[in-house]
Design goal:
Blueprint (H helix, E strand, L loop, with lengths): L7 H60 L3 H14 L4 E8 L2 E11 L10 E11 L8
Antiparallel strand pairs: 1-2, 2-3
Length: 138
């Protein structure tokens, strides 16, 4: 008569396969959490830099508009100057119809995704500011 109970060796192999699968799933989950956090941080930095540059542009433009000078040119210079002080952030500044638009980009290195060939995650930021002199409304 043969027993239907698995032998000790078969049970050990089943447990080993189970542990390998669980560990793989845990490592993948940790990778998503950690690298996802890197992406969120990069996005936050890019958005904050865009907002700061747009705010600087708006302030400079308002001052120049009051003085009757080139508000748009001052806005671009102020925004680019702000972005130059932001480490790891690149960006563009444009002015059209009294609106300053700032687009930024930041990247963050990956930890787990680098194992599959993704070495960095890129994030973008965007902000606008209206050129309005003090006392004016838009």
């Amino acid at each position: 008569m043969t027993s239907s109970m698995p032998s000790h060796d078969e049970r050990g192999q089943s447990v080993s396969v189970f542990i390998v699968l669980i560990m793989t799933a845990l490592i993948m989950t940790a990778g998503l959490v950690i690298d996802g956090g890197q992406k969120i941080t990069a996005t936050s930095r890019a958005e904050a830099a865009a907002a700061g540059a747009a705010r600087a542009a708006g302030n400079a433009a308002a001052t120049q508009a009051l003085a009757g000078s080139d508000a748009a040119g001052s806005a671009v210079i102020a925004a680019k100057s702000f972005l130059a002080g932001e480490t790891g952030i690149s960006g563009t500044v444009s002015v059209s119809a009294g609106v300053v638009t700032v687009r930024t980009s930041s990247s963050a290195p990956t930890i787990f995704l680098s194992a599959v060939g993704i070495d960095a995650l890129t994030a973008d930021g965007y902000a606008q500011a209206n050129i309005v002199a003090t006392g004016e409304t838009r």
